[in-house]
Amino acid sequence: MSDTSGRTRRPRWLTVFGLVTLAVVGVGLYAALIVSPPDVNQGDLIRVMYAHVPVAWIGFAAVAASAFWGMLYLWRGRAPDDVRAQATAEAALLFSVLTVIGGMTYSKPTLNTYWTWDAKLTLTALMVALVVGYFIVRALIEDPQRRARVSAVIMLVVLVSLPFNYLAAEWFRTLHPAKSINLDGSGVTMAPVMVRVLLINVLGGAMVFFYFISERIRIGRLALADDKTFDSVRGVAREVVSVR
Amino acid sequence: MNDLIAALTVARKDFRQELRSRATTVATLFFSAITLVMMAFGLGRDPELMRSAAPGVLWVALAFAGVIAAAQSFQADLEEGAFEQLLLLPVSRAAVYLGKLAASWLYLFVLGALMLPIALGLYGADAPASTWWLLGLVLLLGTLGLALIATFYAGLTANLQAREALLPVLMFPVIVPIMLGAVRATEAALMGSADAPLALSWVQLLGGFDLVYLVVCASIFHFVVDD
């Protein structure tokens, strides 16, 4: 434990990246609040969209990333992959909760109700429930290897459930205003300047995501290293006891 | 081939165990019946509302019963370490999963077939004779979907604390498409043969769900039960 300070210090690139992220988020805010013109139909409310859409996209990408790291863990069985899966899952929970909150605050002034059973919002709410389940199970399993394996499996099921839940939510009932950008990127009907503003905010959101998970993975790996020392100490203690 | 025999053996063991102990039957048969009655009290006395709510209430009751049945099936195995011995058999984990799934599915299907007339009777809806085959198909695929997810998550939570409360929390967000498809298909089937194409389009959702989860759950079940 003598080199603790050196080992636990945040790498310089991460600090620099964090500052750059802050700057990009600032530019995105400026673009969304000042540069972007008000929308023809929604007026200034369109500015909520610049925060809401990137957060929603990143939430779904985070679930996919977590399932990816989980599968990698199932394949290779290396503990750092579980740390990455957990870090991205935490980001997925944060961003999907923010998506639900953002969607509700967005639909109150536009559709005059907080909850409309809109397909994408319903899908996100189900995803929040699924990711919460992931963390409940994580908290209940002590053995780190079994915990990593079981949680990877759960995240895989979450990923598989997304298309089915989307179909179900879509067919349940939809009150969403006509979408401007389809999920596959086709059919863009926004003014070019608004698309650019949106893309800056997507970049800013993605950078926040990468900053969060990088920091979380760094901390998680430090905890992992600590656990290993603890485990080996415990193992020695056990041997001493059994020799006696 | 060996795996198929193993799966059938596990299924037969589970079913025979159930026939002897009747633990799940007692727990779920009256539970789902009383759920139907309680929901009727909850929904009030508007006959039209009751009639239109019948398919939804039936499937909610079946979903709850599926949770209890799947949890019970693993609970019985975990006592006396029987599940560890089951895993010592030189067969794939997928066979164990498929065996337990088959027993749960059969059980839930029979339960659904019993509950369907009770739900229709209590809620004042009638089933046209021309679409009974459609109702059977929906019950078959809908209960398979419930059993797939319930068995998988029951295996996952079998040795965790608070599993009874945990199982529905994990399982319900996944079975939303089954609930929607089964309820809508049942509704359409109750409308008579004119709505059969509509019912069949919902049945396709059920079939796709069942197929995908059958493959996914069977192939990753060993990660869940192995130590």
Structural features, described:
The complex is a heterodimer of chains A (244) and B (227). With 244 residues, chain A is mostly helical. Chain A has one domain. In chain A, helix 3 packs antiparallel against helix 4 and helix 5 runs antiparallel to helix 6. Chain B has one domain. In chain B, helix 5 packs antiparallel against helix 9 and helix 6 runs parallel beside helix 9. Chain B is globular and about 55 Å long. The mean pLDDT of chain B is 90.
Q: What order do the helices and strands of chain B follow?
A: HHHHHHHHH
Helix content class of chain A? over 70%
Give the tally of β-strands of chain B: 0
Judged by helices, strands and strand pairing, the structural class of chain A is mainly alpha
What is the ordering of alpha helices and beta strands of chain A?
HHHHHHH
Instruction: Give unreliable regions of chain A as ranges.
Output: none
What is the distance, rounded to the nearest whole angstrom, between the alpha carbons of the first and last residues of chain B?
26 Å
**Tally of domains of chain A:** 1
Q: By helix and strand content of chain B, what is the structural category?
A: mainly alpha
Assembly level? heterodimer
- The tally of helices of chain B reads 9
Distance between the termini of chain A: 29 Å
Rg of chain B computed from alpha carbons, rounded to a whole number of angstroms: 18 Å
The share of residues in helices of chain B is over 70%
Cα radius of gyration of chain A in angstroms: 22 Å
Total helical segments of chain A: 7
Give the largest interface: A-B, 29 and 28 residues
Whole-number tally of structural domains of chain B? 1
